[in-house]
């Protein structure tokens, strides 16, 4: 599963509705969460990031990747017994 977080400026309920409708039409989308106050859209599903950005841009809004503190250059080291269920968000390594 892929988690795509975007910064999209939404001015009104009509903007939010148009973007939500466009994102829900994408094959593989499981969940769309829109936070109008912080201008953040989170899309969850078996999707391609480029397809999501393209769908938002087709509605006339500018979409840019959300700068998250959770995304790091180095993989996260998980403690023994814990496994990350989201691909690419951590590696399983035992701690000594």
TrEMBL record:
<dbReference type="InterPro" id="IPR006121">
    <property type="entry name" value="HMA_dom"/>
</dbReference>
<feature type="domain" description="HMA">
    <location>
        <begin position="1"/>
        <end position="64"/>
    </location>
</feature>
<dbReference type="GO" id="GO:0046872">
    <property type="term" value="F:metal ion binding"/>
</dbReference>
<dbReference type="InterPro" id="IPR036163">
    <property type="entry name" value="HMA_dom_sf"/>
</dbReference>
<dbReference type="Pfam" id="PF00403">
    <property type="entry name" value="HMA"/>
</dbReference>
<protein>
    <submittedName>
        <fullName>Heavy metal-associated isoprenylated plant protein 26</fullName>
    </submittedName>
</protein>
<keyword id="KW-0479">Metal-binding</keyword>
């Amino acid at each position: 599963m892929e988690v795509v977080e975007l910064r999209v400026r939404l001015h009104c309920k009509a903007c939010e509705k148009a973007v939500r409708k466009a994102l829900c039409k994408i094959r593989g989308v499981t969940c769309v969460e829109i936070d109008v106050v912080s201008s953040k859209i989170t899309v969850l599903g078996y999707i391609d990031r480029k397809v999501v950005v393209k769908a938002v841009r087709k509605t006339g809004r500018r979409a840019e990747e959300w700068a998250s503190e959770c995304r790091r250059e180095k993989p996260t080291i998980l403690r023994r017994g814990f496994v990350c269920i989201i691909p690419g968000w951590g590696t399983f390594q035992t701690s000594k």
